[in-house]
Amino acid sequence: MNNFQDRRYEELLKEVRILSGCVQTLQHNFERLADNQDLMMESNPSAPNLWLTPKQLGQLAGLSSSTISKYRKRGIFKKFSTKEVEKGQLIYYYYHRQNALKDLQKIKPVHIRSNSIYISDKA
Fold first, then answer.
1. Among 24, 46, 51, 77, which is least packed, fewest CB within 10 Å?
2. 108 DSSP 8-state letter
3. How far is CA 69 from CA 25, 51, 53, 95, in A?
4. How many CB atoms sit inside 10 A of residue 2's CB?
C-alpha cells in the first residue's frame, strides 16, 4: 500500500512539473504576443500614441506626473504597463496607454469604451 502511494505521489509530482512548464511557456508566448501587438499598434498611423510620458498619462487620468512616478515606484503598474528608455545616463519611463490605465483602476475609477479612453469622476 505504501509503495502504491509513493508511485502515485511521483506521478502527481511529474504532472505538476509538466503543467508548470506549460504555464511558463504560455507566459512567454503571452509576453511575445503583447510585444507584437504593441509593435502593430505603433506602426498604425491612425492609432493614438500607445506609450505615454508620465505627464501625458497624468493628464489623461487627472493626476500629476509626480503622482504617476510615485505609483510606478510603489509597484502599482505591472510589467506590461511600463517601459524604460535609456538616453545617455538618464532613464525615461513610458506608460502603456491601456495597460497603465487599467492598473490605475486600483486607485481611481477609469473607464475604457471602444478604443476611446476617458476618466470617470464618479466612484
1. 46
2. S
3. 32, 15, 10, 10
4. 6
**What is the secondary structure of 19-52 as a DSSP string?**
HHHHHHHHHHHHHHHHHHHHHHHHH-TTSPPSEE
Cell for 80?
506590461
Tell me the mean pLDDT in the region 34-58.
74
DSSP tally for the chain: helices H, then strands E = 4, 5
Q: What is the pLDDT of residues 96-117, one digit of tens each?
A: 988 898 899 888 776 554 444 5
The pTM for the full model equals: 0.54
CATH assignment of 51-119, given 1.10.1660, 1.10.3430, 3.30.2410, 3.90.1520? 1.10.1660
Other CB atoms closer than 10 Å to residue 88's CB: what's the count?
5
